[in-house]
Amino acid sequence: MLLEGKIAVITGAGPGLGRTLAKLLRDEGAAVVVAARTAATLDQTAAEVPGVLAVPADLTSIDDVQRLAGTVIDRFGRVDVLVNAAFPGSHRKNVLDMSAGDLESWRKAVETGGYGTLLACRFIAPHMVARRSGSIVNITSMSSRLGYAGRSDYAAGKAAAHLLSHCLADELGPYGVRVNCVAPGWIASDVLEEWMRTRAAAEGVPFEEILARDVSAMALRRIATEEDVARAVVYLASDHARAVTGATIDVNGGQLFT
């Protein structure tokens, strides 16, 4: 098992990718702590991934993140892996069409993606520095380098985490702490399928036509799964990547080459 004996913290461990990350890291031998804002979400994760320690935390709150770090250290004495995966869903609105409420949603999204990632690193990384060992993996996105209309909140938040990772890799490298990114493209999910079906309906064509058109733009002719993304995280978290820092692994089926 690639992570046997390691202590891993996952922020944003809600439905979908966060839960898949928790399961795979646990299956690879890590003791896993999951954090998210909503207690009900964490309860569901804990029910589906037995053995994880669930800690409710608003990742944009200094007090909450300090409490999260303290809880982990009190329980395990150290942190070996930090995976930052928290991000609210995009509401798909063009900038010039945004209402006051939309602007506030934009601010909160970018705050979660950028500032939330910063806080988790700020209060958990010192425990890695003290041991001169650790791996931080930030889940960014293809959108951190390629913006789309209506997704400026998502792109800006992910871009903040992406460049923050470069800065932290430079700052923490001398202490043996690695910082990398995994950047998914589209991930197979009910949400993605619903979006494709909406586009198909708008164009008056079958869903299968939209799916085939989208997949044909990917070199591997397949849409990545949550497990595909999680396995890239496991690699960067493991000792197999001990000489890798400041890097980004793209998991997009060849939709975007970088």
Could you characterize what this model shows?
InterPro entries: NAD(P)-bd_dom_sf, Sc_DH/Rdtase_CS, SDR_fam. This is SDR family oxidoreductase. Keywords: Oxidoreductase. By secondary structure, the chain is α/β, with parallel strands linked by helices. The chain has 2 domains: 7-187 and 225-251, Rossmann fold (3-Layer(aba) Sandwich); 189-222, no CATH class. Helix content is 48%, strand content 14%. It has a 7-stranded parallel β-sheet with strand order 3-2-1-4-5-6-7, with helices on both faces. The protein is globular.
Report mean pLDDT, rounded to a whole number.
95
CA radius of gyration? 18 Å
Q: Can you tell me the residue ranges where pLDDT is under 50 for at least 5 consecutive residues?
A: none
Total strands: 7
Secondary-structure element sequence? EHEHEHEHEHEHHHE
DSSP helical segment count = 8
Q: Give me the CATH fold name of the largest domain.
A: Rossmann fold
First and last CA, distance: 30 Å
Kindly estimate the percentage of residues that lie in beta strands according to DSSP: 5-15%
InterPro entries: NAD(P)-bd_dom_sf, Sc_DH/Rdtase_CS, SDR_fam
Protein name: SDR family oxidoreductase
GO biological process, one term: fatty acid elongation
Family: Belongs to the short-chain dehydrogenases/reductases (SDR) family.
